Sequence to fold (522 residues):
Amino acid sequence: MKKFESNIYENAKSWPFEEARKLLSRKGVKEKGYALLETGYGPSGLPHIGTFGEVARTTYVRHAFERMTGIKTKLYAFSDDRDGLRKVPDNIPNREMLAKYIGFPLTEIPDPFGSHESFGHHNNNKLMEFLDSFGFEYEFRSATDCYKKGLLNDILLKVLSRHEEILEVMLASLREERAATYSPFLPISPKTGRVLQVKIEEYRVNDGTIIFKDEDGALTELPVIDGNCKLQWKVDWAARWAAFGVDYEMAGKDLIDSVKLSSKICEILGGTPPDGFNYELFLDEEGKKISKSKGNGLGVDEWLRYAPPESLSNFMFASPKSAKKLYFDVIPRQIDDYTSHLRNFENQEPDKQINNPAWHIHGGNPPKPEAEISFSLLLNLVNVCNTDDKDILWGFIKKYRSDASPETMPFLDALAQYAINYYRDFIKSKKRYASPTNLEKEALEDLLSELNNLNGSEKVDELQSIVFEVGKRHNFPDLKTWFGSLYRCLLGQDDGQRKGSFIMLYGLDNTKKLIEEALERK
Fold:
C-alpha cells in the first residue's frame, strides 16, 4: 500500500474508518493477522431490514479496516438456530402444525414451507439467499452445528467450571422469580427434545455434566457438551466471543445492558469482549419503535419495490447512532441522496472520496453516474403524465437527454419503473389540485407570460431563474410559499423538484398547458 494512500485512510473521518481505527488498536489483531467480525441472526423469523442493516454496517467497517491496514478480515453471519421456538410467527403457513413444537430447537422442527430439513434450515437458507443477493461476503455459522460438532465443547466445559462466577453476574440483573431457576445451561430433554428452562440441581464440574428434573419430574444427568445443552443467550453470546475470538460486533441500542453483561461473562471465560457500537433503533411513521411482531415497519422487499438496493444501503450508512424513521416517505430522499453522492464522487479528491457514502456502499469502487435526473423529478413527471407506461416517460427523458435510452442508462430505466410504482401506491390517491388564489393567479399569469417569450433553447438554470424572479415580483411571504403554490396548483401535491428541471424535462409547451389548466380551475 502506498504511503499516501495509508495517510488518507488514517485521517478519514467517516464513521466506518473511526470504527476501523478502534479495531486496529485492539490487542491481538495484528498478531493473529486478521480481524474477526460477527453479526447475529435469530432464525425464528425470516430475515428483515434490521438484518440487512447490521450486516451492511459491519461490512462498511470491515472494508474500511482492510483498506486502511492491509490486514485481512472475516465476517461470521451467526444463526442462533439452536434456540427453542417461543411463539409461532404470523407470516408462515401451517401455523397449527408449528404450534405443536413450541420449545423445540428451531433445527428440530419440521419446515412449515415443506422445502427444507427443518424450520431453522429453511430460515437459514433464506438468510444466505438474502445476503448473497446483496453481494455480501461472509462465512455462515450455525449454532446447531457448533454445538453438535463439538466446536463449543471447550468453552462449554469452561462455563461449567466457572458457573458460580457467571451466576453472580447474571442473578443481579434478574427479577427474583426468574433468578430462582436461572442457570447458564438450558438442557435439551432427552425424552421430549425440548429446550428446557429449569433449575439445575447439581453442577458436576469433574464429570462435565449437570443434573436437572426433566419434564416428567425425573432427575436426569446430561453432559453439557456435544449439543446436549445450549447456553442462555447472554452467556451464549459471551461464549461465542471467547471461543472464536470475535473482535467486532455491533448491536442495537436496546441491547446495551446485554452487551455489558455478556462482556463481563466473556472476561470470566478468559476472552476479550469485542469492540463495536450500539446503533439506534428504527421508528415507524408515528415515531414508535419498529416491532417485527407488530409489523409496523418497512420490509426489505417493500423497499425494493420502490427503490434500488443502493438507496437502502445509503439509508443504513447515514448516522447509524441516530434514530431514524423507517417508512415509505423516506424512500425518495434516500434515492436522491445516493445519486447525489455518486455524482459528487468523480470530482472529489481522494481524501474526500473515502468519506463519501458511495465509496463505502460500493466497496471503494463506485460506478459512473448516469443522467442527472433525480427520482423526485421522475415522480413529478409520472404525476403529470398519470401513466403506468414507462415508454411514455422515456419519450420525455430522450427530449431532455438525446443520448439516453434504457439500454445505455439501465439505472435510470429502473428508477423510472420505481417512480411509477411509488406514484401508483402512494401519490395518485392523494392528489388534490388546488384552485389558485388571486395572488397565485396573478403570479401564474406572469409566469405563463414569461414562458411565452422563450424559444425552448434555454438551460435549466435559466428556467429556474425565471421561476425565482416571478416569485419575487409578487407578494408571497417567501419563495418557499411560491414554490408550494406551484406544486399544489400544477401537480396536485405539496412539494416537488426544482421547477427549472421540471420544465426542462416535461417540455415548455406542456408546462404552459399545465399553467393554463390551473388558471381555468374553479
Remarks:
- The chain has four domains: 3-171+232-279, 282-361, 375-430, 438-520.
- Residues 209 and 505 are 74 Å apart (CA to CA).
- The radius of gyration is 29 Å.
- The mean pLDDT is 92.
